Every structure is written in C-alpha cells, then in structure tokens.
C-alpha cells in the first residue's frame, strides 16, 4: 500500500528544476536511472537514530526529508529526492544490522514469520521548501530457514547495511515464500510508482514529450 501526501499543487508553467538524488545507494541510483531522466547524485550525512515513540512510518518520512534538506543546502534550486527504509517485526523497528552476528540473529528470528518493510520517499523543491511524500509497505513472508542457510546467506550477500538484514536485489528472495507488495521496486529502496506520482505533481513526467537537460554542476 502506498500513501501519497502533498503540499499545494506545483505551477506547471515554471521552468523544470534539475533533479538530484540525495543518496549514496547505488541501488537507488540504478532504480532512478530506469526513469530515463537526467539527474545528479549528492550523498547526505545524517543521524538515522529513531526518535522516542516514533513509528516506522514517521521515521522513514522524517529521514527521507532530512536527507533531502541536507542536500538542498548545496542545491538551492532543484527537485531533490530523499528516501529511507526501515523494517518492522514484533512491533519493533529494525534498522541496518551492522554486524554479521546481528544480521544472522535478525534473520533467524524472521524464520516462518512476516516482516514489513516501509520505504519512504520525498520530493523536495529546494527553491520553495515545499515537499511531497509517500510511504510504501512491502510484506515479506519468510520461509522456515536453518542457521546454516542464514549464515551462508549473510556471508554471500553481506546485507549489513540493509534494513532488516536482507538484500532484496541480491539473494534475499531465497529466504522467502513470497512478497506482498504494490510496488516491487520499493523493497529495493526506491518506490518508483509513488515517486512517479510525486514527480508528476511537480510537473516532471518521465513519459512526457519533453526531456530536461541537467548540467553536471
């Protein structure tokens, strides 16, 4: 399910702004490249610690916007895309495991269970500070897995920097019975269905007749 929230509608007569991806993730970059729109990449550096009492939906929206706003300081007139992901399991928010031990522990806990992956995306107009946001929820149905399978998976895929300790674009699907999602790109890190809607609301249609030219600056 994807919820799209918005600020006031963009003025379609304004000259389109350059597009900037606020991310260091090559997977998000590769997903955005599918749209065929020129864009720049600028990596933000933020504290991703959840706030006390913050829900997963609030967390991924806040961090997506925070990433975009950090990059906005260097791009005062641009459309900036920020995105963040978190996993929820047993009413707890799970971030990136960081270590092999933590990843193995998380994945063994998921055995035979369901885990929700929430992916937030924000498009920020840095010229006006107006933003639009959406959150996608993907549910992964884990099969019953053994400790040796999980350890082998972690050694091969090295998902230490992935929310929930699983890399959907790698060998992660081998741990699953199935995935319930409205957008197969969301679990990889950037929900293109929601992003397309946010960009169109800003007057940028990847399937439109005109193609913008982005300077390398």
Describe this structure in words.
The protein is of the alpha+beta class. It has five helices and eight strands, in the order ββαβαββαββαβα. β2 (19-22), α1 and β3 (40-41) form a beta-alpha-beta unit. It starts with a strand and ends in a 16-residue tail after the last helix. 41% of the residues are buried. Residues 1-12 and 211-217 have low confidence and may be disordered.
- Uncertain ranges: 1-12, 211-217
Query: Which oligomeric form is depicted?
Result: single chain
User: What share of the residues lie within helices?
Assistant: 25-40%
* H/E element order: EEHEHEEHEEHEH
Notable features of this structure?
5 helices, 217 residues, single chain, elongated, alpha+beta, disordered N terminus, 26% helix, 8-stranded mixed sheet
């Amino acid at each position: 399910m994807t919820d799209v929230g918005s600020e006031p509608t963009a003025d379609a007569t304004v000259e389109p702004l350059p597009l900037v991806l606020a991310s260091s993730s090559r997977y998000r970059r590769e997903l955005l490249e599918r749209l065929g729109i020129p864009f720049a990449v600028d990596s933000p550096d933020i504290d991703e610690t959840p706030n006390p009492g913050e829900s997963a939906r609030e967390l991924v929206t806040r961090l997506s916007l925070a990433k975009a706003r950090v990059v906005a300081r260097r791009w005062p007139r641009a459309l900036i895309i920020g995105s963040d992901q978190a996993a929820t399991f047993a009413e707890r928010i799970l971030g990136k495991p960081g270590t092999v031990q933590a990843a193995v522990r998380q994945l063994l806990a998921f055995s035979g269970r369901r885990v929700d992956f929430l992916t937030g995306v924000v498009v920020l107009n840095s010229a006006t500070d107006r933003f639009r946001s959406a959150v996608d929820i993907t549910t992964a149905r884990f099969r019953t897995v053994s400790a040796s399978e999980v350890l082998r998976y972690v050694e091969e895929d090295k998902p230490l920097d992935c929310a929930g300790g699983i890399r959907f674009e790698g060998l992660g699907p081998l741990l699953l019975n199935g995935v319930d999602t409205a957008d197969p790109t969301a679990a990889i890190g950037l929900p293109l269905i929601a992003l397309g809607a946010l960009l169109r609301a800003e007057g940028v249609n990847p399937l439109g007749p005109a193609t913008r030219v982005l300077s390398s600056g």
